[in-house]
Design brief:
single chain, alpha/beta, 5 strands
Length: 225
């Protein structure tokens, strides 16, 4: 059994599908952090159901109270292409917070495996997507929990860590998942379309294009590199 972070995005979907393919029973965890693109939570429910999750918890945690990100505050989502540096769509300590919640559920449920869909190649430069972060959190889990102290360490699985977005799309195809169920856009249109201009839309589109696999996504504007 594994606790799998399921945001509703493409990467988290393929990460969850990898857990299922490896034989894990899935406990799916999504966080309603009052994100601008809350539409992703509907996608998370679709993904969890499609992968046969035994339970799906959507945990409310209003990070807009802190702000500091274009996803949680009144800050425009950048639409001028992927730029060097850490973008304003970075949510302070988000993956640290999410993994901490997943760790709490895992210990309570008797699970010792956690899955997260972070990626360190085709991504937006977030520091909490790097291998160093995953390794450090795994070490933290060992010393911060009753299970870890008693010799039952946790394993943080990041199966997409070293994949390009095209590799991730190919992996989704290999695993036979419907990637059209996922949601990537940071700034959805009122009609419920991917905007096609934010970093996440551009990276998603680029992944399908480079993989040579038809993109099932409905974009308001055709994404550019």
């Amino acid at each position: 059994m594994a606790v799998v972070l399921v945001s509703g995005g493409l990467d988290s979907m393929i990460s969850a599908a990898s857990a299922k393919a490896a034989g894990y029973r899935i406990l799916a965890l999504s966080v309603d952090y009052n994100q601008r693109h809350k539409i992703e939570l509907a996608a998370a429910a679709r993904v969890a159901e499609s992968l046969g999750a035994e339970r799906h918890i959507v945990l409310p945690l209003d990070l807009s109270a802190f702000g500091g990100s274009a996803l949680t505050a009144d800050i425009d989502v950048p639409k001028d292409g992927v730029q060097p540096g850490i973008p304003v769509t970075y949510v302070p300590a988000r993956n640290t917070i999410f993994l901490s919640l997943a760790l709490g559920w895992a210990e309570a449920a008797g699970a010792r495996d956690l899955f997260i869909g972070v990626n360190a190649l085709d991504y937006s430069g977030y520091p909490d997507c790097r291998p160093e972060f995953i390794a450090a959190f795994e070490g933290l889990a060992e010393i911060a929990t009753k299970a870890g102290v008693e010799g039952q360490p946790f394993k943080i699985h990041a199966p997409l860590q070293h994949m390009t977005k095209a590799d991730i799309v190919r992996e989704g195809t290999r695993l036979g998942v419907d990637m059209g169920l996922s949601w990537s856009c940071y700034d959805p249109t009122p009609e419920g379309l991917h905007c096609g201009e934010c970093d996440s839309c551009r990276l998603r589109s680029k992944g399908f294009e480079e993989a040579g696999i038809p993109d099932p996504t409905a974009y308001a504007v055709k994404p550019r590199d």
